[in-house]
Design brief:
This protein is mainly beta. 7% of the residues lie in helices and 36% in strands. It contains three helices and 28 strands. It has helices spanning 23-33, 183-188, 191-199; strands at residues 7-10, 13-22, 45-55, 61-63, 68-71, 76-77, 92-94, 99-108, 115-118, 130-133, 166-169, 172-181, 207-216, 222-224, 229-232, 243-245, 254-256, 261-269, 285-288, 298-301, 332-335, 340-343, 352-356, 361-364, 369-371, 374-381, 387-391, 395-397. Strand 22 and strand 23 form a beta hairpin. It starts with 6 loop residues before the first strand and ends with a strand.
Length: 399
């Protein structure tokens, strides 16, 4: 493993790690590049590595952020995050004899032990790969590759695994432990997925997410891909027309060191229109097949999700009906929760006009209505873009 200041000759490159920073210092750098850059996800922190490279070959060479990865204590191998770094990133075309210096932003669970990996996407094989010590106690972690489950179930189409049971598929040990549907998925979603839901709120009831844990039992690094889990019908045939969504964090798909484990979400949108106009929205099985060419698929049966979302129920449902709020036509109210549905009709089955964030100001346009066991108020947004009904449990008077 190369240390800071060492010169590493790697194929056509000479690479030197000139500095690395983590914690608050890295946060300041990332925010300074662009104030819109997101804070590090829970459990992770930013690390910024600065490297100098020299092209010692005889032709132009390309280097970029995708050539670098990082590991910490958890054994997850992470690529640089998608953030704005302007012209300070280590990426570009370098002519023979030319040099380039730039930053590589990274996310890791533990800065003290983190290791930078150089694996060029353009140089074949691993002969030009190398590792660099970023943290003061940098070390590539090791884990036992023995299976951790005492007993695996068959996981066939005829005898699928239940949630909480373990299956082994190729080089992976897999279990699924939780499921969410509709509004529950939206509530956990990233800003990108929320934006998708707000642009097409009628699709939200057909979102489904499953939470699982995986372990790489192979002797080499392995990638658990976004297509490793697929919804399937009762015959085990996967649905090609189903959309894979950006899952709520943490994301189950990942690149793991041998023996390392990880857990997270995978998400799907079940609604699609077939050639005859049919809506496919009932899944029976989840197929697990990390490598389509070599792995024999195995299956989990899909249980009912929580009753609060199993039938497309949404954020407006509560345990009991309250007396109507004392609100008059023309009064202004504000939403008190994130992801409040504005519906076209005062019904939990009513079309979702839009999904309102916390703090949106609305104007009461008529008296309250009691329906489906809830008190609804007809409202319109103050910019007059939307009008519909909201359940009173998620609004409060501004006066």
């Amino acid at each position: 493993m190369f240390q800071q200041g060492d010169v590493a000759t790697l194929g056509p490159w000479r690479l030197t790690l000139t500095s690395s920073v983590g914690g608050a210092e890295a946060d300041v750098l990332v925010a300074g590049w662009n104030s819109a850059n997101a804070a590090a996800p829970d459990g992770l922190s930013y690390v910024v590595a600065t490297l100098s490279v020299e092209n010692i070959g005889t032709r132009d060479q390309v280097i970029g952020l995708s050539d670098f990865l990082v590991t910490g204590k958890d054994g997850v191998i992470r690529h640089p995050p998608t953030i704005s770094i302007d012209d300070q990133a280590l990426q570009g075309i370098v002519a023979p004899g030319g040099t380039l210096t730039g930053h590589v932003p990274l996310l890791v669970d533990d800065f003290e032990s983190c290791v930078l990996w150089f694996e060029s996407t353009l140089i074949g094989g691993n002969w030009a790969n190398a590792t660099f010590a970023l943290g003061p106690s940098a070390e590539v972690p090791t884990f036992p590759t023995t299976t951790s489950a005492s007993d695996y179930v068959e996981g066939s189409v005829d005898s699928p695994a239940a949630f909480g049971e373990f299956i082994k598929v190729g080089d992976w040990e897999v279990t699924l432990t939780d499921i969410a549907e509709g509004q529950a998925v939206f509530d956990m979603a990233t800003s990108e997925l929320r934006a998708l839901g707000q642009s097409a709120p009628e699709d939200i009831p057909n979102w489904l997410a499953v939470y699982g844990k995986i372990k790489n039992v192979a002797p080499v690094k392995s990638f658990f891909s976004p297509t490793a889990l697929r919804l399937a019908d009762e015959s085990g045939e996967p649905w090609d027309h189903i959309l894979a969504l950006t899952p709520p964090p943490p994301d189950l798909r990942c690149y793991l060191l041998p023996g390392a484990s990880h857990e997270g979400w995978a998400a799907f949108q079940r609604t699609d229109y077939g050639s005859e106009g049919a809506i496919y929205s009932t899944a029976h099985l989840i197929q697990v097949r990390p490598y389509a060419l070599t792995d024999t698929p195995k299956y989990f049966s899909i249980p009912n999700a929580s009753s609060s979302n199993a039938a497309g129920a949404t954020v407006e449902e509560t345990d009991e009906t309250q007396l109507p709020l004392q609100l008059a036509v023309g009064d202004e109210v504000v939403t008190t929760e994130d992801a409040v549905n504005l519906r076209a009709e005062p019904s939990i089955e009513g079309e979702i006009v839009t999904v309102l964030e916390k703090g949106v100001t609305l104007e009461i346009v008529a008296g309250s209505v009691e329906a489906d066991g809830y008190v609804w108020f007809p409202v319109e947004t103050t910019d007059l873009r939307y009008e519909g009904f909201v359940v009173q449990d998620f609004i409060a008077s501004t006066s």
